[in-house]
Amino acid sequence: MWNIESTKPDINVLFDYVTVTFPVDDEETDFYEEHEGQSIYALFSNSHFQHFLTLLGLNQLDYSDKGKIEHYDKLIMYKEHIVFKYNGPKNKMGLKTHSFELKGEGCREAEKLGIDWYQLFAYIHEYGLTVSTLHIASDIFTEKYFTIDQLLKKSLGDEYISPSRKFSHIHSSKSKVKAGTSLYFGSRDANQVNIYDKKNERYYKGYDVDTNVWIRIEIRLKSNKSWDFVRLFVLNGYENLPSLYLDILKGMLVFKSKSKTTNRKERWNIWRPWERFLKDTNGIKLKNQSFLESTLVRKREWLIHSAGRILLEFYSSINEEEKVKFFNEILDRKIEKINQTSLVRVNEHRQKFQLQTFESLDLYKEYLLKDLNKII
User: Fold this and answer.
1) Residues 277 and 310 in one domain
2) Quick one: 325 and 218 in the same domain?
3) Same-domain status, 93 and 212
4) CA 223 to CA 336: how far, in whole Å?
């Protein structure tokens, strides 16, 4: 489904939030009445629930019960981020509904499990299920089009056209705890475009950041527009997702170059950097976003590109004693940052080279201490 290469693309298009609601079956309703609506096991007979589990390769009994939540009898979770909300609000037909929800981390977790996005939306389309929330995004890993500061300046100067007149922004300096810039075109309860500095957002949430540039342009669609997307996506196929995404974005937001001859923005020319971005569908290579965010191949590329020259200069400017101190300092500062995610990432990479994997986190840390001490 994805063309996975060792290097990151300039642009990737991805799904970042999907919520699907589906009706409670008649058989389930009978079960609820018999058991006063408290048993989760009625859900397991639901045909749509079974299909979603099969699509993700999940065992129906391997879940965590998170208890009752607002509007639903229960929230149950598979893995760490795949959510089903059980026995909730009624739909337009008067039927009670369940909800299948993949937020950002849930989408990445689903990708690691091998989800076929086209198959998911084709099923939703076939059965007329409701997609109440849908976020489709592009991640930009280059400044060859524009920077987040340029977009902020254009926005504050009112040099854009959007169906929604509502614009807001968050802009904080790097000295503050929550650094970064976020631009909002439209309101949260309607269709919206959100452009933000994903690199800084990840960094200040405590994640590893292994790219110098990471701008996210996120289209947030509600029920009416999300169904239009589903229909067009199923009609055009997964390989046409980039052009579909850019067509939708063009209809929701266009940055303009101010004219000296007229104040009518519709007559202004499209800002050339934005136009280049909107037209560069050939430059987008669809990739599994979970791999882009986690593979050691990408981290190796970032390390060489961003820090390689400085490492060489620093290493060649110190004596042998300082070299030992340098590597020991890396160990002292970073060994505690090595966690279960690190272990999974390392084991996946070792398997490619037919190396023995580490059975536990402790064994991996023990190896690090021994092996790096051999080097220094």
Assistant:
1) no
2) no
3) yes
4) 44
CB-based contacts of 85, cutoff 8 Å, min separation 6: 69, 71, 72, 74, 75, 98, 99, 101
Express each pLDDT in 248-287 by its tens digit: 999 999 999 999 999 999 999 999 999 999 988 766 766 6
pLDDT of residue 16: 94
For residue 269, tell me if it sits in a domain: yes
**Nearest in space to 182 (alpha carbons), one of 202, 201, 166, 159:** 201
Query: 321 with 258, same domain?
Result: no
Q: Are residues 75 and 204 in the same domain?
A: yes
Asked whether residue 2 is domain-assigned, the answer is no
The CA-based dihedral angle spanning residues 271, 213, 310, 345, taken in that order and rounded to the nearest 10 degrees: -160
Residue partners of 241: CB distance under 8 A and separation at least 6: 13, 136, 233, 286
pTM of the predicted model, to two decimals? 0.74
Rama region for 345: left / alpha / beta (φ>0; ψ in -120 to 50; rest): alpha
For residues 212 and 303, state if they share a domain.
no
pLDDT tens profile 159-207: 999 998 899 998 765 545 455 799 999 988 889 999 999 888 776 665 5
Main-chain phi, psi angles of 42, to 5 degrees: -60, -35
Total of domains in the chain? 2
Query: What does the pLDDT look like over 280-329, one tens digit per residue?
Result: 876 676 665 555 455 555 566 556 655 677 778 787 888 888 877 887 78
User: The domain containing residue 334 runs over which residues?
Assistant: 289-375
Instruction: Please list the helix, strand and coil fractions of the chain in percent, rounded to the nearest 5, in that order.
Output: 45, 20, 30
Give the three-class secondary structure for 25.
coil
